[in-house]
Structure formats: structure tokens, C-alpha cells
Amino acid sequence: MKPLDPQHFEPRFYEVEHITTYDYSADVRASYGRACLRPRDTATQRICEHTIRVTPEPGLLSEHTDLFGNASHYLEIQQPHRRLEVAKTSLVHVTAIAPDLSALNRWTVAEAAAVPPPGDPTLGAAYLLPSPLIRPTAPVHARALDALAPDAPLGEALDRLITGIYTDFTYSSGVTSVTTSLAELLELKAGVCQDFAHLAIGCLRAVGLPARYVSGYLETQPPPGRPKLRGADATHAWASVGLPDGTWLDLDPTNDCVADGRYVTTAWGRDYRDVTPLKGVIFTDGTTSSLNVSVDVHRVEE
Amino acid sequence: MNATPAVPGLTPAVLAQRTTAVAAMVEGDGIVAGADAEGRPQPLRVDPGPLVIDAQEWAGLERALAQRATLLDAVLADLYGPRELVKRGLIPPQIIVGHPGFFAAASGIPTRGALLTTAADLGKDADGQWRVLADRTQRPLGAGYAMAIRRVIARALAPVHRATPLRRLRGYFDALRSGLLELGSSASEAPRVVMLRAADEDESAFDEMFAATLLGFPVVVSDDVALRDGRLWLTTTGRDEPIDILVRRVDARSADPLDLVAGSGAGIPGLVEATRRGNVTVVNPVGSGVLENPALGAFLPAIARALLDEDLLLPSARTWWCGEETGRRHAAAHLDDIVVAPLASLPGQGRVFTADLTRDERAALWERVESEPWAWSAQEVLPPWQVDLVGAAPGSNRAGLLRTFTLAGASGSTVMPGGLARFAAQEGARRVPALAEAIAKDVWVLDEDAERPDVPQGHRDRDRIEVPAATVGPVPLPPRAAEDLYWFGRYVERAESTARLLLVADDLVEDHLTRPGTIGHAAMTTMLGAIDAVTSVQRYRGRATAADTAAFPSGEDPVGHLRRLVFEAGRRGSVRFSAARANQAASRVRELLSLDAWLVLSRLQRTLIPTQPNEEDLQGVLAAVIEACLALSGMSAEGLVRDASWAFHDAGRRVERAQETVRVLRRTLPAASTPGAALVREATLRARESLLSYRRRRAEGGRGRSPLAVALELLLLDETNPRSVAYQLDRLQDDLRHAPSPDPAAVLRVPTLALAGADAVALALDPEALDVFLADLEAQLRAVSGSVEAACFPHRAPAHSFEERR
Predict the structure, then answer these.
(1) Which among A15, A248, B230, B668 has the fewest CB atoms less than 10 Å away?
(2) Span A101-275 CATH architecture
(3) Pick from B86, B796, B802: which is nearest to A121 by CB?
């Protein structure tokens, strides 16, 4: 993995704006949605402010805490509409702590796998077992054993896994879909952050390490000399592995690095299915819709 | 297995002698399970001899089943609540989160008391102790079959049934109804209960519809209900009503496309959220499938002690979870005596009797077990039953099971005193086949104390074979049910109309076929042409089945042609096609129809199965069809409350009769000056059941009108003739008052005015004008049915799922 950059571990405030717009070809009579609209508080981030704006005004917008501890929202719109816009804005204080990867080498992979996952045993099992989008097949096992051999020191093994995915796969949108399986991904050798996170998680689970899927945002830098464009950021996803000391370490195979202070966490679960940013069911005679997602992550001074 | 208690009168001779009667009753009552290669539902195989259990043995079983149901409800509440059982190490978490019936989205929703109905599949171990082979908690099926079979056996063995002190089944359904109402009593004084069925019939259709008939709650499909403001509403043919209790008769995976399984769009989006908000209780809860987990059997004894502070009275067949080293080792060492079971039986992945496997197959299976040991368990194989079946040696060894049904209501548990027993059709098979391939038996639980009130209190053993009237007050009619009733009406009417037409044509063919050039032959030709035009009005010919092609070789002799129009199943417009469609529509609203109607419908289907070689008495078959249709009319006219159900059924008949009449007239009467016109006219009047009135009018002198004018008057305009078009419109106007829209007068205005302005005498003089008039009227009536169907049976816009990436 890329070496840690100390400046990425300075505490900072981010304003995150995420606007999802659907345009429909015909009136939508009713729309039912499930969404993760509010980032959760974690050991390294605190949500200072948060607003949600849905247009048209939903008849019902409610929130509960799901099995994985995320804020889960239900929204229901009964008035006919041709456009749905869900906008959320958060002010987040991030205080990432630089991990010591070499310290993890005091355990082998097998030793780490022998320690029961931290916390609630049901969730621990959930992060160890296959999940709907992460089915370990023989090629996944082979890849896992390659990077995560039982007697390998844990820190080195994790580094090898993440860099291996980063090196062997090409980032390319449109090649995969929300239902692409790990087996297909291994054939395609290309995908997006969601796919790479799934693969990393599949490999970790295959050797008995608990792993979860994290969805959130990443602050990006414009090309040198160019101003940063609004809305040019994207939602992001990465993997998190449960360590023998009971903590979790977030790793980003898409960018070959540890998730540092530039990462804002929204929610986590077994895989993408548990933390879809926005999904729903609509009733309409129309057959087409277009989706536009605009994400903006920028630093602000408190 | 112990010898069954002796019941006087249940002798092999008596049972053998009643076998045919039982089969006939099963068929007559429409008790079907599974389908044949062509998709036709097949009657269930029922052995006349009941499985008899004595009072003392049952008392122990009853207590044990009640305890198990209470326990399972408590386990479910814990698994979707605090998960203490997992935290305390009493249940391994893998068998919960690894089970496809566990829905994370349902976590945190209280389910206590909502696991209302459970079923248990029982067998006996080598020591003769009852053991549970499987718990059915997701969507327990079979209670309807148990009651339907009891109805048959009670009739087939009437003298024995009467003389035997026997626990009755009816009380179970009463308790179920009370249990459901109790669950909603916190929500409102008169909780609204509906039963949600799958939009397409599946293998469970009979069972669920029969149970629904006994319960009297409206049966809906997901199209009939919708979430609004986090509440579930029933869109009825009147106003919308809130739903408090939803009896889920669809698989959890098809219940909520938003929160359970996305993709198909089937189901009710938001249903899980509505339960989370406490606005509706789903019975059984969507996540209850997690209890149908063979591995759980290994842990239930300890769970019972922890949750109930009691010993488990009815353990599972001995079970080893392969996720534990000891369990896995035991399983590996006993592959000859166990069944290996995945956590959940999915298509292509079910229980495996390892003794039946080859060496290689065993090795392959064991490799799968070793790769995901937590996903597997092993269960002891129970010895076969020694059971008496008609046609087999006494005490024949059969794989089998007894399915019992238990309610765990707020006011205590109720066990159905009896159940559904099924056995393998062949000796030696290890696997208990699905009901469709098995032989079913009624289960008699003897009653020591004839004076004892049957459970529960307050549901004292009434005459349990009677089907109750609907629940108190008007039951709202969901749009899909209204639509099915309407098409039931239309297809019965179409079958009758076609049968009458064919009967008349067959007479003409009989008399005139061999006499070309005569007036009679010309009339015959006209009628045959008219029949073709009327029956093929849809201009569509269904795909002919292989059976059709064999049974109906091409070649156009009129007799063969008529025969095809009666019997050809794939031909749209044939009597058989219409009857099958009527049956299909009726089976979707079975809970709204009397059992008598069902008998008639079953007979109608049977009448229309062609025999080989083709020597049916066509006249006799057609007469039987007409008789069946008249019987259904009679039941609808004399047996139904004049509510919305009746109105939509009647509307279907009226719409169809009006359209058929005009279609027939248009193709027979305008040719007034052609040879044979008088014969054709009389044939038409006969086919429209108005010949006698016509002759009487003519005898009275017809008030100086031409015969054609009298016929037109009678069949189109005469509001006193129940076969005239004017009469149908009159009735339709009344029927539509039960519909929220459209305005009946507005819908019927055009054809009503056309009829009011028609002059039969003038039309009779001008064949061209008559043809135009009839063609217009036909189009106007089609417009009527179009707007009635659009307004009364609105279909929701289709559902689409969407998902934002990353």
C-alpha cells in the first residue's frame, strides 16, 4: 500500500453534499424508498450538522437504527411526480488516527483468524459468513490464500491483499453492475470501488478474518493547476477488517491505501446490499428513467 | 410403530369398499395437489382409512406441541430483538445470519405473539417416542387440506364417523380467527384482517383458499393493497380501509420488494416498514423462516430450559450441527443412519439420505459439508411407519409423517386435534414425498370424554363440517376478487351460450347433413357459419396441445367440427375452454363461493373431457353443460346475498349474454330472404332460449308483425324476456350500483338509447339497416364492457425497482 501521509491524518471538517436526482419518462404515482441519508458517528468522525431535503415533499420520512447500527431512512411519496431529488448535506469532523501496520505483524493471519470477532456475536458472524453479493468461490479462495497465507504476518498480508487488487484490476465504470458476482469480477479484471471492496472482503472472510463493507465519501483533488469542480466527487466504498485487538482497520483497495482523514463514513454492513445509498420501488407506466448523482466533499474551517 | 387403537367398523372390507367413493368425493370437492404434465391440477390421493390416535397419547402430544409453539414464538422474538440466546451461547450465530430466512431488515421489529400458526412434521423413533422432523413456521400449509379431507372421510365413512367419539377440527379454525382478531385488538375495536395470496396460483392455492373459506376474511393480492403514510390500506370496490392484520400466504421473499428481496417488483413495498411502525401485524412475521432450520433442533432443549424453565417435551429427531467439531465427527461416522440437511432447503439443495448415495457422491457431499460446516446438520433417520393402506398388505412399511398444526395465541395455545398424515406411495422409499406424490390420510384423535368441550373454551364442538357464513358485517371486496367474479360470470355464460348454439346446430346437422340442396341444408350451413363467427370472435386460436392434435384430426366434417367446438381445450371459444376459464377464475375466489358451486364446477370439467374413441353423446354432453350452467345461475340467484360479490358476478353474466345475443343475431337474422331463413330463425330463438315465447307471440297473432319483427322484439327489446338485450342492460344498471364508479346510467346510455329508439318492424323490413343496427349495437356493448372493466378493476401502474450504485 502507499505509505501513510501524515498530513492526511490532521483533524479536519468536511462539508459533504450528495444530491441524487431521478428523472422519469412518465408520472410516478407512488414512490417508496430506503436510504442511508445520515452518516453515522464513529470513533474517528462526528456529525456536527445534518440536513435532508427530498423533493417532492415525502408524505413520510422516518429513520431507525438498523441491525448494523446505521441510520436507515424510509421515504414515501404519494403525489405524482416526474423528478425525485434527494439532497443531503453534512458537516463532519474527522479525526483519523494513523495505524501502525507493522505492529500487526505480531500476529499471523491464522492467529488473527482464531480470535472471535469483536462485539455482538451475531454481527461478528455476519461479517465472517458469505453474504448475498460476496460468495466465496474457489478462485476467491485461491486469491485469498495467495495474499493471506495462514502463517503470514498479518500486517504484511493485508498490505499484499490490498496492493494486489489495486495492481491486478483496472478501474472502469460500466463494466460491472450492482449484481456482479466475485466470480465474474475475477474474470473481468475491471470494476469500480464497490467491486474491489467486495473482493477484498471476500478474501478476508475466506481466511476467517471478519470484514465489512463501508460506504461513504472520499475527498478528491483536482488535477494540478485546475480548480476543483462542484459535484465532481463521488460516493465511495472500501473494506474494513476486524483485528485481534477488537478494533477495525479500514482499507481502500481502489486507491491502495489505508482509509485516512480524507474518508467520510456513511454506513457499513455485510455488503453493498445492506447500505445502498438509495433504493426504492416506484409505480409508473413509464419505462425509462435517468439518474444523476452529484457529490461534493470540501474542507471547511470551523 | 404401535398398533393403532381399534375403532369398531373400520374394517379392511369397509375401507376397500369406500375407496371409489372417497376418490369421487375428493374430485367432486376439487381437492387438488400438484398438476399433471399439462398443468392440470390433480386430485389428491386419499386413503379411506384414518390414522387413529387414542386420547391418552394425544393428550401428551398436545401438551408438548403447545409448549413447542410457545417456545418458537419466544425464540423468534429474541432473534429479531435482543438476541440474548446468541449472546448467551445457546444458539450459534452462524445458523441465524447464515440462514436465508433471516432478514436483517426485519431486525428490531417486535414479533411476540405474531408467530400465530406453526406446523410440525412428526414421526416416531425406534423407541416409539414422537419426534419432530421439521418445524414449519414461515408459511405453514396443510390445515386446509386436513379439514377438506375430514369432510370427505366423514361422508364416506358416515356410520363409523358418527359412532366414533372423535375430536373435531372446526374449533381450530375458530381459534385461529379469534387469535387473529386478538392480535389486532390493540389497534382498533374491530380489527381488519386480510389474507394475502400470491398473484399467480401456486401449489398451496387449494389449502389456502380452503382455509380462507373457513375463516371468512377477505383474500387479497398485493395489487389490492398499498402503503400510505406508513399504514397498509385495502383498496376495496368501495372506499379504502386500513388493515391491522395481514395473514401472509406468500413467501417472505415476495412480500416486500423494498426491504426483503429486490428485483421482481412483486409484493408490497413498505410492508416491513409498516410492521416496524406497529401499524400492521404480519402473521406469520416475514422473518419467521429462520426457525425452519434443522440445526436448531440440536439446541432447543437448552433453549427451553433457558426461556421457559421447562424441559422440552417434544424434542426433534436427534440432530447434530456440523458447525461443531463433535457434531461433524458424529455425522461423518454415521453416514448410513442419517439424513444430511442444509440450513435451508432451497430448490436443488435439500435433505440428503446419505445411505442412498454412492461412495463418490458421499465424498462430494462431505467435501461441501467440510467447506461450510456451519451450513449443515445431520439428523437421525426415523424408522418407517407400519401403516394400513387400501391396496397394500396390512402394516405396510412406509416413509411418512404426521403434520400437526398449533396456534400460539395470546390467550393460550390450541392444537388442531388431528392433522394431515402422508405416506410414500411405494414401500421401501426413504423420503417422504410431497403431498402431490403421496397418499394422504385423515387423522382421528379419539375422545375419551364426549362431554368435554373441545379446545378452546368458548369454541364448543359445533357442527364442524358446515362452512360458516361470512364474518359479521359486509366484507369489503378487493378489486382483484371483483374482477375474478366478473370473469367467472362471463365465462359461465359463454359456456352456456356456446353449448346452446352447438346443441341447435347438432340437430340441424343430424337432420339435413345428407340432403344438400334442400332448405334444411342451407339453414344448417348458415348456422354453422354463424357458430364459427361467434366462437372465433376473438380471432385468436390458442396453442393446440399435443393431445388436441391427436384427438382432433383435421378434415372438416361438420360433426367433427362441432365436436371440436365442444371438447378442444386449447381452442378459444370452445365450450371446454370457457368452462376451464370459468373454473380458473372461480378457483381464485374460492373463499367467496359455496362448496355446492364447487361440486358443479368440478362436474362441468369432467363432463368436457373427451373419450376415446370419439363416441361421446354430443347432445348428452351439451345438455349436461347447460344443466351445470343453470345450476350455477340458480345458486347465484337463490343462494347469494345481494352484495358487491353477487353484483360483479351478475354483471359478468349480463355483459356476456347481451354481447353473445347480438353477435348471434347479427350472423343469423339479417339473411331473412334467403332459403331456410325461417328454420334459421327458429334455431336462433331456440339457441337463445326464447322459442317458446316466440311461438306463443306468433300464436297470439304477433299483432300483425312479421315473424322476424317478433323475433327481434323478443330478443332485443322486450324488457320482460330475461334473454333479451334490453333486460341485460336493465340488470347491469342495477349491478353497477355496487361499484364505486362508473355511473351506471352514463355507461349504458348509448346502447339503452339505441334500443329505445329501435323499431323492430322497420328493421325487419330492411336487412341492410338491421345489419348496421346490430353491428353498431355490438360495438356499443363492447364499449360498455370496456369501460366497466377499466373503471371497476383498475390495475396499478407497474412497479419498478431502482438502486443507486456505490
Answers:
(1) A15
(2) Roll (3.10)
(3) B86
